[in-house]
Amino acid sequence: MFIDSHCHIDFPELAARMPEILAKMAENKVSHALCVSVDLPDFPRVLALAELYPHIFASVGVHPDYEDTPEPSVEQLVELARHPKIVAIGETGLDYYRLEGDLEWQRERFRTHIRASRETRKPLIIHTRSASEDTIRIMREEGAGTDQGGVAGVMHCFTESLEVARASMEQGFYISFSGIVTFKSARELQAVALEVPLERMLIETDSPYLAPVPYRGKTNEPGYVAHVAEFIAKLKGVPVEQVAEQTSANFFELFKAAA
To answer: 217: helix, coil or strand?
Structure first.
């Protein structure tokens, strides 16, 4: 069985097709999925899915790309994370690709999430794009990793260098690969995936975005995470069952979710 460790099935294009989405998950042997929060106004619909379906988990957090949205406090994130189906804090992090100007607010928001993670003892879901140096620095300054008493978490939809992957793993973080790793143009990322041990790896869709080959360009969904696993298995020269078993075990170990 496979697990989609990061998806947004609460987004309208997927939520409207929920019976179909769940059926495709079952058909493709995807046993669980983590529906990830991107802002607080829409958090109730994320939680509602987790409450409705036993095999769907949720997180609470505010994405770094969401500039004009209510700013979370540590206390607010801690309170919302008390719900038993909330297994992580995030998605949080830094993104210097889409936004320009003074982004200190992004860095402060990131610090808020790390502090909430340390208080709740729930792992972080980190998004980083064109900001890896500051991301790693703040993770260290705030003690996000298990090496500093934090809970660590996952570097989601990873597209950075092997050096960034290693720096993250040194802090106890897992590295999650999305459909991007299956793209022909992603040679550098494939080289990273080859070096990341299965014991430190998760797989995801980030749906409805970034559908893997052979669905590239189409709306992504959790059922397609099997194609990510199949690609990684071929890349590493191991059975796909081994990728499925290890990444699923990693998911439950990290998020302390009930199978």
So the answer is: coil
The two counts, helices (H) then strands (E), for the chain are: 10, 8
pLDDT in tens, 200-238: 999 999 999 999 999 999 999 999 999 999 999 999 999
Task: Using the structure block, give the residue that is written with the tokens 């014991």.
Answer: 199
Comparing CA positions, the residue from 88, 83, 85 lying closest to residue 113 is 88
Count Cβ atoms within 10 A of the Cβ of residue 253 and give its class: 0-12 exposed, 13-18 middle, 19 or more buried.
Answer: exposed
For residue 259, pLDDT beyond 70: no
On the CB side of 148, CA atoms within 13 Å amount to 18
Alpha helices in 171-210 (DSSP H): 187-195
- Which of 242, 221, 240, 126 minimizes the C-alpha distance to 175? 126
First to last CA, the chain: 12
Output phi, psi for 117, to 5 deg. -65, -45
Q: Nearest-5° angle of CA 204, CA 253, CA 75?
A: 85
Q: Is 12 helix (H, G, I), strand (E, B) or coil?
A: helix
Digit-coded pLDDT (tens) for 2-51: 999 999 999 999 999 999 999 999 999 999 999 999 999 999 999 999 99
Tokens 């991301």: give the residue: 135
